[in-house]
Each structure stands twice: as C-alpha cells, then as structure tokens.
Amino acid sequence: MYELTEEQQAIVETTREIAQKKLKPLREHYDKTEEYPWAIVEELRKADLFGVYFPTEYGGLGGGAFELCLVIEELSKVCAGTALVIAGTALGAYPIMLHGNDAQKKKYLPDLASGKRLGAFTITEPEAGSDATATKATAVLDGDHYVLNGTKVYCTNGNAAEIYTLFFSTAPARGARGISAFIVEKGTPGFEFGRKEEKMGIRASPTYQLLFNNCRVPKENLLGLPGGGLLVAQATFDVSRPGVASQALGIAQGAMDEAFAYARSRRQFGQPVISFQAMQHKLANMAMDIEAARCLLYTVARAIDKGGKKRYTKESAMVKCFCSDVAMRVSVEAVQMCGGIGYMRDFPVEKYMRDAKITQIYEGTNEIQRNEIAMMMIKEAAREGKK
Ligand SMILES: Cc1cc2nc3c(=O)[nH]c(=O)nc-3n(C[C@H](O)[C@H](O)[C@H](O)COP(=O)(O)OP(=O)(O)OC[C@H]3O[C@@H](n4cnc5c(N)ncnc54)[C@H](O)[C@@H]3O)c2cc1C
Fold it and tell me: What's the pLDDT tens digit per position in 180-207?
C-alpha cells in the first residue's frame, strides 16, 4: 500500500530482524535496569542503519527523513527507548547536516553516519523549556575559543553520546536573536554530566543534566551564524519531528499487536474476549488511528525529502502531534483490552503506555505543536491575502 522501494523494504526487513530477534529478548531487561542498549547499538552499526538518512559523501546510504522514520518505527514497535539511540543521534546530527560548514560536516558526519560516535541535541534548561528564548547558559568569545557556562537539562542519549549540538546565548541582551548553536565533544574539559533522570518510560534511554563550567570550545565549533541558534533549532525540528512521530507510530502498532494477540487467546464466558463487540470496536478504532497516522507520517516524510517547499514547520508539527496523540490513545486502550494482566510489569503492554507519554512532550509539547500549526495557518492566510 505504501509502495516502498526495494531499498526501503530492505531497510525495514533488516531493522525488523534486529528488533524482533535481538532487541525483543532484552527490552524488559533494559526497561528494568536502565542499562544502555550497547548490544543493539552494535547490531545497528553492523547493519549500517545509523546512516540511512545521511548523504553518501559522508558514508551514509543517501536516504532521507523517510528512511529514518522506517528504522525508528520498526525499533519502536519493540522498544521506543532503544529507538532513541538512532533518533537522538539524528537530532544531534541534523543541525550539522543542515547548518554545518564543509569542515564541520567532514569532521563529524562520517562518525555519526556509521554510528561510531553517537549524537545528542540539547536546548532545554531549567528555566527554558517550551520557551527556548529564555536560554541562560552563555558562550563568551575569548580569543580563539568560546567559554561555555551554564546548565542544560533532559539531554537524550545523555552520557552515551560523544557529539553534542547545544545552544548558548552569545549575546544575552539580544534575547532570542542572541542564542547560538555549538558542537561540543564529550571529554572537553569543563563539560560534565550532572543528574541522571529517573523516568516513567523510555528507560533504555539515559536522560542527563549537562554542566558547563568555563568549558572552552574552539570558535570553529560555532554552528551557523552567531545569534542564529533558534533558526538552527527550528530547521532541525522541521525534519526531526517526523522521527518522534515514527517512534509514536511504532509504539501504537506494537501495543495494538500485543493486545490483539492476547484478546484472541484470552477466553472469558466460554469464548475469546475478541469475540465481544466492545473489544472489536476498540481494535477497529486502534487500527484506524494507526493507519491514519502512518498515512500522514509517510506523506510528510516523503514531502520533506522531495523538498518542494522551503520549510515544513506546519507539517512536521502536525505529524508529531497527531501520531503521538494516537500512540497515547492506542496504548491506553491496549492496556484496557488486556484487563488486569495489561497492568502488570511482566506483560509488555504497560510499557507501551509509559513510553507513549513522552512523545506528546518532547521536541515541543503537543500544546506547542498546536500553537505552531495555528500560527503557520494564520501567517499563510495573511500571505495569501485571505479575507
Ligand atoms: C525524557 C525527556 C527527554 C528529553 N530530551 C530532550 C533532549 O534531548 N533535548 C532537549 O533539548 N530537550 C529534551 N527534553 C525536554 C523537552 O523538550 C521539554 O521537556 C519540553 O519541550 C517541555 O518543556 P518543559 O518541560 O520545560 O515544560 P514547560 O515549558 O514548563 O511546560 C509546562 C506545561 O505548560 C504548557 N505550555 C508552556 N507554554 C505554553 C504555551 N505557550 N501555550 C500553551 N501551553 C504551554 C506545556 O505544553 C506544558 O503542558 C526532554 C524531556 C524529557 C522529559
């Protein structure tokens, strides 16, 4: 139905094989222990799956946002936390791909494309969440270096990453126009990890505070223009939010598959519980939600790759918001469909519900996505001179 090319089909099958054969037996362990899924990282590296969306000149497979979404969806059907090894790296890599100069691309993209080094991206601070313009961390030019100070929070891929795209104010008096993007490498003196967060879901993915104390980075590590940080961030979200959507879609599909299988085998009143119309309607609603989400996601990801428009802010916000709302609805219904066992930690369905929640929160909450969608519509109407 979605007319994947042979190469895209091969990407799906390779990822599915790793997800089902290698990840599935380990997902409960990762969820319970919060151990980083290095064994799966190794499998993904061997299969070249980190590189599906990178240009071939940097060692990638030459695909785009769509191929990345296919990988994230397949991994998230099994464990959305583990999918973040690739999705979190993409969030760190896209700013370099979109706004890096030649030297930065040559230095960092090959390692990110091979998965040799993982990436991360953090703009969030204790006082700057939805409102990134409130960024307090500073970068002050001192000779050939910028000196970084401040605290970033909620960094996905936490201490597992080695290449970080981060945002600091280079001109606090200029507010939003004073924020700049930087590439910072793990191990740079003055860059340390603070608290590791204890989370409801995606527990295979470490979420860390990042602490900067007179951390000196070469001035070549400025990404894009001074004061252009929020443009870098927004351009990144335009292409990365479909990644969150594909994570959400995978969660929804995984939750429905598990609940459906259970409802076919579980017998009450002398019959499988799926024979009750109430359960059938839940199943039908889940399936409709999931297919609608997939149609929107694949259409938007393909449009981004085709690149007919300058920006896809509205579409990427729509797909992130829609798919994550679907993931939440479907995973809650999946738990309900399984009854008591659906609530138990040793049965896989409750994990989908815990994992689904974050997709409505990160890379901009769904309230912020709705604000952006409406704002873009209002701007478009004004541009088109609509009455
Ligand atoms: C597990 C996890 C991983 C994360 N990973 C990363 C990462 O890798 N990199 C990174 O930079 N950040 C990351 N984040 C941060 C995440 O993007 C933010 O938490 C999110 O953007 C919301 O910011 P906040 O938590 O400060 O909430 P707040 O901004 O304080 O929002 C609180 C509530 O107010 C609502 N609200 C705020 N402003 C408005 C408004 N204008 N209109 C309507 N409602 C509004 C919000 O929608 C929300 O419901 C992560 C967060 C979590 C929990």
Answer: 999 999 999 999 999 999 999 999 999 9
Class of domain 120-227: mainly beta
Residue 136, helix vs strand vs coil: coil
Active-site residue flag, 35? no
CATH superfamily, with its number, for domain 6-117: Acyl-CoA dehydrogenase/oxidase, N-terminal domain (1.10.540.10)
Segments making up each domain of the chain, as ranges: 6-117, 120-227, 230-382
What is the fold, at CATH topology level, of the domain defined by 230-382?
Butyryl-CoA Dehydrogenase, subunit A; domain 3 (1.20.140)
Pocket of ligand 1 (CB under 6 A): 121-124, 129-130, 154-156, 199, 207, 358, 361-365, 367-368, 371
- The Cα 197–Cα 3 span in angstroms is 41
Q: Kind and range of the H or E element at 357? A: helix 349-359
CB 161 within 8 A of CB 88: yes
The single residue listed with the structure tokens 């981004």 is 304
Which parts of the chain sit beneath pLDDT 70? Answer: none
